[in-house]
Design brief:
2 copies of one chain form a homodimer. Chain A has 11 helices and 12 strands. With 393 residues, chain A is α/β, with parallel strands linked by helices. In chain A, helix 2 links the parallel strand 9 and strand 10.
Chain lengths: 393, 393
């Protein structure tokens, strides 16, 4: 799989091989921040590697907006099958080294890849649609906590995520401080900015504007694919940098030697690329889930209600690795530094890496080698220190 | 009128008062760059100030994407009427001082504010719709040239414009070098980048996705207002800066003390603002014109076909004032500097001002006082030097 038009350099290390999506069904109610309760719900998840005897080698990976539980490996032996979305990062000898760690990822609550969300069947036998309750990052994390309980896991060596996944990782460190050893916060923000909200809202408006959306009640008819494709294009452009778009496409025409002067069909390669991204996305994603999960991003402000961001973080006990990318204009280095500064102010252990990378927000997925050095190196060091008897520091 | 949420400081100088939109009808064919020809067309225009005897005091203002010929003044005596879109800049004693200059602005060909465009009636008596030929910045400029011929004007003291208007100003300097004394290139680019094209294409895709667009044939039915509103929101966010959005809206809720957790209706103030911008825009703009004019922006590359940008500019004889804004991420200072560097390389007279301003691309409209100093000061100096007998320099 290529992101952002850049081909990730293939990691020479091993693959997790053929994996299976699992599901856990919960009848323990999930009380949501919006005040409503999900009486029963399902989480889809995958695991890679082996849980050690003491249960001390667990890494929870939290996925981004349109991700899912299928982080790595393959579902079949079909050589044409694409691996999970972060296959380059999860496997024996990789960034998240499955010869050492037991890695878990679950599809977020509100999603559409096996976990309960607006496209799921409600107790009345019909799809929820907009009757599904609003979900927040806190709710996603609480659901994940139920999953860990279900799996008999009571501690996380690390929780890690990029983008929305980073928000979840941070929420974990605050919500369940006793459980989290290390928080790996990648290409993310402690607080969605007005511009973050604005871009998400434009995507939602594109879905609302599609008559097929029908107030979210479209599961027995044509889904609002036109609107969802536009929403994806809006999102996608925020994942790339001006530089990467220019390098990859510039003003190159698509299948034409001279401008055809036409509408609808692409003229420039960059238009064709956007169209392709939209078309690819609507095959795999539910429009209502897109609404719910972008809202969860927008609602995220870890400091909400506290006098300062530092006050909100004071409860945390994890060590932090914060990584941002120089060309990421969606979740900027400045936003990540707000977190770093607040963590430092309360004396928590935090390492910050600003990675010089050209691929914008998507750099966290594209820059595999750099990320392997930074994140894999951090995990390696921390694991060694933890398992040897030397105190860390 | 306020832009960008910032209230322009009211200029203490005079207003052009009540003005009238005029129209000129042309039967001289306009051969377009796409290879097609408009046999007859109309341009709407306005003028402010008085043409002097020698015809040496003409300034042509070129409008931006969604602008029109109504730059300044009022159409009625109604005190509630909003003035033209750059009223702060055009009038006695203002940036474009109408006590000295004769200012002209015409609605671009392809537009929907009085000039012939896709919503106009074709020779067969029906609206053109997508049958209207593609237009480029060069075509806009050539049509303006016909208008000047019609008005008996054979020289421009200056041609000025921001954004798409700047592209037109630059095209003027290259297309009719003998006619242009000064080219004022504001918040613009000599070449639309891949990212510029991408944002415009997303807006177009939002329009295409609206079933009411109906391949551009909607003039006897409901227009594609949903799609056009989304297109406007996409555009609008590129006109503002992250900083200005944060300053104005932050995470403030709209009419709520606590998050209502709802869809469609705005929760955050920034969402309400975007919605308002969309709703306001669809009342005044035609969706097909939006398609045509964004395409004209995308097609713009003044260096196209020449070995280098400098080579393409070598024919120009004007003096240049290039102004860009530190927070403009649509047409960046770097893009403007490409023009400056090329002009310097061929020994043309160019002054460059990078204005430190927080309002993003819209700064050229919002930062009236700074712009009056820079642009008004430049015009004042150049006019004084031209009309005194001292050579300029």
């Amino acid at each position: 799989m290529t992101f952002n038009g850049a081909k990730p350099r293939r990691n020479q290390n091993g693959s997790v091989g053929v994996v299976k999506r699992q599901t856990a069904h919960f009848t323990k109610p999930l009380r949501l921040r919006c005040g409503r309760t999900l009486e029963r719900y399902t989480l889809a998840y995958e695991t890679y590697g082996t849980l050690n005897e003491g249960g001390s080698n667990v890494i929870l990976i939290c996925h981004a907006l349109t991700g899912d539980s299928h982080v790595a490996g393959y579902y079949t032996d079909d050589p044409a099958e694409k691996p999970g979305w972060w296959d380059e990062a999860v496997g024996p000898g990789k960034m998240f080294d499955t010869s050492r760690f037991f890695v878990i990822c679950s599809n977020v609550i509100g999603g559409c890849q096996g976990s309960t969300g607006p496209s799921s069947t409600a107790p009345d036998g019909r799809p929820y649609g907009l009757r599904f309750p609003a979900v927040t990052v806190q709710d996603m994390v609480r659901a994940q906590r139920h999953l860990l309980d279900h799996l008999g896991i009571d501690a996380l060596f690390a929780v890690a995520g990029g983008s929305l996944g980073g928000m979840q990782a941070l929420q974990w460190a605050v919500e369940y401080p006793e459980m989290v050893g290390h928080c790996l916060f990648l290409a993310s923000t402690p607080r969605s900015s007005a511009q973050n909200v604005a871009f998400n809202e434009i995507g939602r408006q594109a879905i609302y504007a599609d008559p097929r959306w029908n107030d979210g009640d479209y599961y027995d008819a044509d889904p609002p694919q036109g609107g969802l494709a536009v929403a994806r294009m809006v999102g996608h452009i925020t994942y790339m940098s001006e530089h990467s778009l220019e390098q990859k496409f510039g003003r190159r025409l698509q299948n034409h030697d001279a401008l055809p002067y036409q509408f609808v069909d692409p003229e420039y390669a960059v238009e064709s690329y956007l169209k392709y991204q939209g078309e690819k996305f609507i095959k795999r994603f539910d429009a209502n889930s897109y609404l719910y999960i972008t809202k969860a991003c927008d609602y995220f402000d870890i400091g909400e209600g506290a006098p300062t961001l530092a006050d909100a973080l004071r409860v945390a006990k994890a060590r932090f690795l914060v990584v941002s990318f120089s060309s990421d204009w969606l979740y900027t280095p400045e936003q990540a530094l707000d977190l770093v500064t607040a963590l430092e102010a309360i004396g928590l252990d935090v390492r910050y890496h600003l990675i010089h990378a050209d691929f914008g927000h998507d750099s966290f997925l594209v820059e595999v080698d750099l990320m392997t050095n930074v994140v894999g190196g951090y995990l390696n060091q921390m694991w060694t220190k933890t398992t040897s008897n030397y105190p860390v520091e």
